[in-house]
From TrEMBL:
Lineage: Eukaryota, Metazoa, Chordata, Craniata, Vertebrata
Name this polypeptide is given: OBSCN protein
UniProt subcellular location: Cytoplasm
PROSITE patterns for the chain: IG_LIKE, IG_MHC
Gene Ontology cellular component list: cytoplasm
Domain of life from the UniProt record: Eukaryota
Keyword Electron transport: no
Organism this protein belongs to: Callaeas wilsoni
TM spans (from-to): none
Length: 86
């Protein structure tokens, strides 16, 4: 299995309370396994508040819905040993 690397990392984002915010990270290969999103070191699951998806096979996206002050912090995307933060 090829080593999947991060081609385009996360970008810092400022958003108003109550808005949605989307983070994108592009990886080098499609169908990457061992992928994880975290907010403040807490692993995120795909649910009504966090939408996790993959576009075009290589662009991993995380949308945080209706953010609050408690959502302030570091977002981390990890694939294998590689990470990107914003």
């Amino acid at each position: 299995e090829p080593d999947v690397t991060i081609v385009s990392g996360l970008k810092d984002t400022v958003v108003s309370e109550g808005d949605d915010v989307t983070f994108r990270c592009q990886v080098s290969h499609e169908n990457a396994r061992d992928v994880e999103w975290k907010l403040q070191d807490v692993a995120l699951q795909n649910n009504e508040m966090n939408e996790i998806s993959v576009e075009k096979g290589k662009i991993h996206t995380l949308t945080l819905r209706k953010v609050t002050e408690q959502d302030v912090g570091t977002v981390t995307f990890r694939v294998g040993p590689h990470t990107s933060t914003a």
